[in-house]
Design a protein that fits this description.
elongated; 160 residues
Length: 160
């Protein structure tokens, strides 16, 4: 249960970063131009923003769960011994430093960077190319996800 709380907090990162990243004084105006949007079009879209933000949180939460499993290497070892709690305990007791090895913000941020470059960039770029969007659009959106993944990975690695 505590792990889900950590993932929920990490999911909130996407809102904080998005509030800053897509602010008109940062990349907001450039993003709107690259996306072919205007403030008026966004205001009059008829979208239910409560539903939009709820879905954004759910999707960010899903990303945080996956990022947590990637940045915390011990998860793989735990699954290996999952059917034998006694063997897992014996393994951890024999190597207590293993339980927290590589559990730093810096290490999680490294994995977040790798995810941003090798997962977010291809996904954003492929969709954007078929949507006939510019490279400016691709870099703005990929940059957002890169920063989110770096911070989420760092938080989850250091905190969980």
């Amino acid at each position: 249960m505590e792990t889900l709380l950590h993932c929920a907090v990490a999911a909130l990162v996407s809102f904080v970063v998005g509030f800053i990243w897509y602010n008109p004084k940062v990349f907001g105006n450039a993003w709107m131009n690259a996306a072919g949007l205007t403030e008026e079009k966004l205001r009059n879209s008829g979208r239910n923003m409560g539903v939009v933000f709820l879905l954004c949180f759910i999707f960010s939460f899903m990303a945080a769960i996956m990022i947590q499993n990637i940045v915390i290497h011990q998860m793989g070892v735990y699954s290996y011994f999952g059917d034998s709690p006694e063997k897992l305990k014996a393994f951890i007791d024999s190597a207590p430093e293993f339980e927290t090895k590589w559990r730093t913000f810096k290490h999680g941020a490294l994995h977040g960077t790798i995810l941003g470059v090798f997962l977010a960039l291809p996904m954003v770029a492929i969709n954007a190319m078929f949507e006939m969007k510019s490279w400016k659009y691709i870099w703005i959106n990929t940059g957002y996800w890169l920063i989110c993944f770096i911070l989420m990975g760092g938080i989850l690695s250091a905190w969980v």
